[in-house]
Amino acid sequence: MSDFIAPAGRYAPSPSGDLHVGNLRTAMLAWLFARQSGRNFYMRVEDIDSERSSAESAARQLEDLAAIGLEWDEPVLYQHDRGHAYADALAQLDTYECYCTRRDIREAASAPHAQPGMYPGTCRDLTEEQRALRRSELHAEGRLPAIRLRAHAREWTVRDYYTGEYTGPVDDVILKRGGRVDQAQAGDWAYNLAVVVDDGYQGVDQVVRGDDLLFSAPAQAYLADRLGFTAPFYIHVPLVVGPEGRRLAKRDGAVTLREMMAHASAADVVEKIAESLGYVGISDAQTLLEKFDPERLPRDAWVFSG
Ligand code: GLU
User: Where does the chain bind L-glutamate (predicted)?
Assistant: First the structure.
C-alpha cells in the first residue's frame, strides 16, 4: 500500500551535477503548478544511474532548490532505495531478455524500414534455444542480459498542457539494464520503469518537466496503464536556450545557481526566472505563487543571456 494518497506534483532531478537556471525554472514551474492547484509537491532524487549519480550532488541540488524558495512535502524519495518496488513491478509485466549491444541496435536500426530511435525487436521473438545460446555467449563476455518490456501497443496518447493530445510510439523500452557477471548482479533499473513506478506510488497525477521528455511520455503512460496506474497529466515545459538558440548548457557560462551567485543574490535569480514567466519585479517564490496564472505563461522557449 502506498502512503501517498493525495494528488501530487513533483520535481525529479538526476543528481549528476548542479542544476542550471533552466532546470531551476522547470522546478519552479513544477512547484507553482502543484501548489497553485492545491496539490502535494515532492522532490524525488532520480539516482538509479549508479555511475553518474552522487549523494553529494543530490544534497547540493536540494540546497539550491530550497535557496530559490521552493518547499516540498516529506519524505524526499531516493530511487536507490526503491529496488524492491521496481522488482515487484517488473514481475507484473510482460518482458523479455535482450542480449543486444548498443552496436547491434545501431546496426539493426540502420536497416531499411527500421523506425529511427526504436528498438528493432531483435530479441523479442527468439526461441528458448536461441535465448540459451545468446545468454551463454553474453556470459562468456562477462555480461548479463537487459530486460525489455514486450509492448502490445504501437502507440499511446497522453494529455499535455502545452501540446494538447499527443500520440507517440510505444517502444519495447529497457526496464532493467544489462549487468556485469563479475559484479554478480544485474544492472541498474531503467529510468522509464522507475519514473512510472514512483509516480504511481507517490500519487503523482501532474508531471512538470522539460519538453525534451515529451517523446517518452506515451511509452511511460502505456507502462503506467500496464501497472494499473492512471497516467498523469503532463506539462512539458519549453526548454531554456542559450544566446545561440541551442539548449542551454554549461558552456554558455555562468548558468548554475552557485555560479550566478558570484555576482547576484538568490532573489535576483528568482526575479529573472519570474520575469521569464511573464512576471516583472517579483523576487520571491511565495509572491510569485500568489500571482501565478498558468493561462498567462509564455509558450516559447526562454532565451537566457546571462
Ligand atoms: N530525472 C529526469 C531529469 O533530470 C527527469 C525525469 C522526469 O521528470 O520524468 O531529466
Answer: 10-14, 46, 191, 209
